[in-house]
Amino acid sequence: RLLQQLSGWLVSDDLGGEDAGCGGPGLVWLHTEQYNLPRRCLRQFFAVRKCFVFPRPASTQNMRRMEELSEKELDSEFLEQANTFCHYVYNNAEPKTISGGRTITGTGVSLGNLAEVYIEAISSGNVPCLENAVVSLAKIQNVRAVERAMQFYMTEMLSIAPLPMRPEELSDIHKIAEKKAIEVFITMAFNDNDQMYHQELMVH
């Protein structure tokens, strides 16, 4: 394991991470309360924590061209720690969920989209709020769900409704296609609690 030296003591990754997280004994911080607040929040909302300390991935000269380096050019200790980190994530990380217990993954409701919205808020200088990110994600996902359902409906109608046909036959086919399109929407929709996007789909 990698070791750090803090206030004259050698500490492991986890202990070092905890110490850095809330200010170690004997360390004097300016604006201590402001500094420690986000760290206390991390402790409160993330009951299980695992800290990893990464050494420099390359020499000072190579650090200037990090994006061009191959894996063989990276520091062996960095690669070892990176592999340890990945192994821990793959074996211990649980599916991400939001309020209501809804799972967000790489398909359907996208964790990637949520991360993009969250990072955009940080980059713009706004205080990132996960709830706002979820609202933005819901809008993106539900607009996409409406579009996908409408496309499905049109494809279904064109494939099973050869013209000319009697009005009652067309009405029956419409009901079948509409039901399937609604199922497509429900599968993709996310946090449409007030059914605003569901109603939008029905209007179309």
From TrEMBL:
Domain Guanylate-binding protein/Atlastin C-terminal stretches: 104-202
Coiled coil regions in record: none
Keywords, alphabetical: Hydrolase
Xref: SUPFAM superfamilies: Interferon-induced guanylate-binding protein 1 (GBP1), C-terminal domain, P-loop containing nucleoside triphosphate hydrolases
Pfam families named in the record: GBP (PF02263), GBP_C (PF02841)
Residue ranges annotated for the Guanylate-binding protein N-terminal domain, each copy included: 32-97
Protein's name according to its UniProt entry: GB1/RHD3-type G domain-containing protein
